[in-house]
Structure formats: C-alpha cells, structure tokens
C-alpha cells in the first residue's frame, strides 16, 4: 500500500494505491474517487453493539466502508468533511482521536470508544475519544493545518480543548483553567488540557468551536412573524 497527501495543508486529499487483495476502511462519505477495480463492502465494524456505541458516544458513523482492490493496482482517494489537513500514523499500540478526526485505516485496526470521565464534562468537548489500537496504518484529519508535538518523559504542554486532534498512549492529561477566574472568564480561552509526556500528540491550527462563534453572527436569522 502506498499513499500520498495532496494539496496540504488546508484542502488536503488522501490518495492511496492498493495492490490486489489490499483493503482500506473509511468513515461513511469519506471516499472522493476510486478506480473501477475496487470493490466496496459496507458493514457495522466490530458488530452492531460496537458500532452503536461508536456512533452514539464517539460521534462517528454507524457503518464503515471497506474498499478492496480486486485485481491489478487500484487508486482511491479520501477527503475530510471540512477544510483541513490529513496526517498518516503508522500505528503500533494505541492512539486516542477526538470525535470527527478519524478518516480511514487498514481493516486490522480496532476502533472503540474511551470515556473521558468528569474531565470531559468540564472540557466543553465530546465526552468520548475514539480509541484506535493494533498494528496498521491510520489516517486522521484536522480543521486547518495539523501540528505535531513530541513530549519527553514528564514534559508538559497546555492545549485548548478545541484544538486537540489525537494523542499517543502514554500521554496523560488533566483539564484546568487557563489562568485565574478573570482570565478564564474574559480571555476567550476558557479551559485547557494539560498533557504530560512521554509521547506524540497532534493539534489543529483552527478550532471548530471558535470558527462557529465567528460565523454565527453573519448568518441570516429567521424573521419573526
């Protein structure tokens, strides 16, 4: 399997070349183009209960599509649902991905949900991460460009709750105020995640929540009767 990420960093398109018998699984609606020698199979990955849990709690689609090259070489492309980048993670072990950032992966990887606990209640984001585990190829997407941060043992970084995309197993985190009460209420930053290494994490350069807040006043409002 070969891949290329085109048009980075904001309107990225993931292009994958499959050999005969190779497969790639993706979120419903992620496929942009594919050659005629690629077959598609739609299923509830991991069974109905697992898919229902992932859909309701993780914010992902209930069904996943698996694309398999029937013969020769096939080419398939995927695009994120929004204006953003795509990142490849050669996965061994576990990664945790924010809702909406999973794009596609090789079929041998498992996908589950991980409850954030009370930390998620106060973070203002989804209460569940997608837990992706095993050994294979994972592709994630971001809103805006994607930026990697490598943390050494005990090293820490604070990330806005709306900008975290994914992090590696081994990284722990807590939710805390950005500063004092005045800064938390008036700075526009609110709550942040303090992440502690070792491991790698990815952040996105734009926050969907902030973008919606900027866009909302410009949208036409319904006229009262």
TrEMBL record:
SUPFAM superfamilies from the UniProt entry: TRAP-like
Coiled coil: none
Lineage top rank: taxon: Archaea
InterPro entries reported for this sequence: AIM24 (IPR002838), AIM24_sf (IPR036983), Trp_RNA-bd_attenuator-like_dom (IPR016031)
PANTHER family (alphabetical): ALTERED INHERITANCE OF MITOCHONDRIA PROTEIN 24, MITOCHONDRIAL (PTHR43657:SF1), TRYPTOPHAN RNA-BINDING ATTENUATOR PROTEIN-LIKE PROTEIN (PTHR43657)
Stored NCBIfam families: TIGR00266 family protein
Protein name: TIGR00266 family protein
Organism encoding this protein: Methanocella arvoryzae (strain DSM 22066 / NBRC 105507 / MRE50)
Source taxonomy: Archaea, Methanobacteriati, Methanobacteriota, Stenosarchaea group, Methanomicrobia
């Amino acid at each position: 399997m070969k891949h290329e990420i085109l048009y980075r960093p904001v309107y990225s398109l993931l292009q994958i070349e499959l050999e005969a018998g190779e497969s790639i699984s993706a979120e419903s609606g992620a496929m942009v183009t594919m050659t005629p020698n690629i077959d598609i199979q739609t299923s509830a990955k991991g069974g109905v209960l697992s898919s229902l849990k992932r859909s309701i709690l993780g914010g992902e689609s209930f069904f996943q599509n698996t694309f398999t090259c029937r013969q020769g070489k096939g080419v398939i492309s995927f695009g994120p649902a929004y204006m953003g980048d795509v990142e490849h993670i050669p996965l061994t072990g576990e990664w945790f991905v924010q809702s909406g950032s999973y794009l596609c992966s090789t079929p041998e990887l498992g996908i589950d949900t991980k409850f954030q606990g009370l930390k998620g209640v106060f973070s203002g984001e989804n209460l569940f991460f997608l837990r992706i585990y095993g050994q294979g190829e994972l592709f994630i997407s971001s809103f805006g460009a994607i930026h990697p941060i490598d943390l050494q043992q005990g090293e820490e970084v604070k990330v806005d709750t709306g900008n975290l995309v994914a992090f590696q197993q081994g990284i722990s985190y807590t939710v805390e105020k950005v500063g004092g009460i005045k800064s938390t209420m008036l700075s526009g930053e609110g709550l942040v995640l303090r992440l502690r290494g070792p491991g790698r994490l990815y952040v996105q350069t734009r926050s969907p929540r902030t973008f919606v807040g900027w866009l909302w006043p410009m949208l036409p409002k319904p006229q009262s009767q």
